[in-house]
Specification:
Elements lengths: L1 E5 L6 H14 L4 E4 L1 H7 L6 H10 L2 E7 L4 H9 L2 E7 L16 H4 L3 E7 L9 H8 L3 E6 L4 H11 L9 E2 L2 E2 L2 H10 L4
Parallel strand pairs: 1-3, 1-4, 2-3, 4-5, 5-6
Antiparallel strand pairs: 7-8
Helix pairs in contact: 1-7
């Protein structure tokens, strides 16, 4: 279960979630997107932990979509998510702290926080990637250029667990060249 959090009102997080959903569907995965509007409609069903567990059981990925805000839905997303993805425009500097310090998120406790930096053309560089990683205490940092390109498909593969890890496979004291490594990944399991 992923919390997709937009850190700015200019980011259309629902569009990003639908793009990831389409990429995952191309990989044969079932994906559910739950937004704050859905939360209002579904609250009569009792959106408790058992409801979220059942939703996760029926789908390969569940996206809980919210802007960063002081709302009940935002806190629910942080509490229920296994992994938190913050979406931020590359042209903006990180604000500290990004997560409320009092929020007892399990994902935060186990460092399952990632940052997706969105690139829109020739953005100016406001902060280094390491500054973003430190600001969010992020385990990983991704870049997404444009909207429907190879980066979106790569992020869908990361969510599906089908990303290419082979480029970092060690053979003795050397790293294999990327092309040989990618070819090895397609031909069999990485060692």
């Amino acid at each position: 279960m992923y919390a997709l959090i937009s850190t700015s009102p200019t980011i259309d997080i629902n569009l990003r979630a639908r793009t990831l959903q389409a990429g995952l569907k191309r990989l044969g995965a079932r994906v559910a997107i739950i937004t704050e509007a859905d939360e209002a409609a579904l609250s009569s069903e009792g959106m408790n932990s058992a409801w979220f567990d059942a939703l996760e059981e029926r789908n390969d990925a569940v996206f809980l979509v919210s802007p960063i805000a002081d709302t009940q839905w935002f806190r629910t997303c942080l509490r229920q998510a296994d992994r938190i993805w913050f979406f931020r425009a590359r042209r903006c500097a990180p604000s500290l702290p990004l997560l409320p310090p009092e929020e007892p998120s399990p994902a935060r406790q186990f460092r399952l926080i990632d940052v997706v930096l969105l690139h829109h053309g020739m953005d100016r560089k406001a902060a280094t990637t390491d500054e973003w990683r430190i600001a969010c205490d992020a385990a990983r940092l991704f870049h997404w250029r444009g909207l429907e390109d190879a980066d979106g498909a790569r992020l869908a593969r990361v969510i599906a667990g089908r990303f290419d890890r082979a480029c970092a496979v060690r053979r003795g004291a050397r790293l294999r060249p990327y092309r040989r490594c990618a070819r090895a990944a397609r031909s069999g399991p990485a060692v």
